[in-house]
From TrEMBL:
UniProt cross-references to InterPro entries, sorted A to Z: Pam17
Name this polypeptide is given: Presequence translocated-associated motor subunit PAM17
GO biological process, one term: protein import into mitochondrial matrix
Keywords, in A-Z order: Membrane, Mitochondrion, Mitochondrion inner membrane, Protein transport, Transit peptide, Translocation, Transmembrane, Transmembrane helix, Transport
Segments crossing the lipid bilayer: 69-91, 107-125
Compartmental location: Mitochondrion inner membrane
GO cellular component: PAM complex, Tim23 associated import motor
Chief location category: mitochondrion
């Protein structure tokens, strides 16, 4: 025989006039329904809503570090090549000081153009590095969509959901790592979450006085 305490949770489930069939919903289904609607506070990146992800998060972070390393390493030779190529080309041109280029002496124009070639090489470096990384990891970089593309999208969407609003930042409370560029592993991801939570608390309740 049911006592009053065991009957009370079942009565809360049904609405007035819903009948006895509504009132006899098992408690296990109530628990599953509640768990599915609650928000996740796990420190790990969530799974894709469409199913399982093609890569585990530790593996993805390791590949992300390698791709960034490739981009950094290729930037050095492309920058040097841009500087040397532009310098050798403009140095071979005859410069007449009496013939101005848009009112500027040719020496300054050629010098600026040489630094422009160096900047162009610096900008092309990451693109070349990413292309070489894709060639050496063809199974992960090819497909429609590619596994790495899926992971990049999931990672950025998660960063977008959890980062703080930069419109509330101030001199004493600057938004930390807005694009998650410093996240290279699961520990650094958890540290990024803590930094975002601290930023949000300061933005909502004000930055405490450092002198106090």
């Amino acid at each position: 025989m049911l006592d009053s305490k065991s009957v009370r949770p079942l009565l809360r489930v049904g609405r007035p006039g819903a009948g006895t069939a509504r009132a006899s919903i098992p408690s296990s289904s109530i628990f599953i329904r509640h768990a599915s609607t609650s928000t996740s506070t796990s420190p790990n990146p969530p799974q894709s809503e469409s199913g399982s992800l093609p890569l585990a998060w530790p593996r993805y972070f390791a590949l992300r570090r390698q791709r960034r390393l490739w981009s950094t390493l290729t930037t050095i030779p492309t920058t040097v090549a841009g500087l040397l190529g532009g310098g050798s080309y403009f140095a071979s041109l005859e410069a007449d000081p009496t013939q101005l280029i848009m009112g500027i002496e040719p020496m300054f124009v050629y010098g600026g153009a040489t630094f422009g070639c160096m900047a162009l090489g610096y900008l092309l470096g990451p693109t070349l590095g990413s292309s070489l990384f894709s060639l050496t990891h063809a199974s992960l970089a090819r497909g429609n969509p590619a596994p790495l593309e899926i992971m990049d999208r999931e990672f950025f969407n998660h960063i977008k959901r959890n980062r703080g609003d930069p419109s509330f930042q101030s001199v004493n409370n600057i938004a930390p790592d807005f694009y998650g560029e410093k996240v290279v592993s699961l520990p650094s991801y958890r540290r990024w979450l803590r930094d975002q939570a601290a930023y949000k608390r300061k933005a909502m309740h004000g930055v405490p006085d450092e002198a106090s």
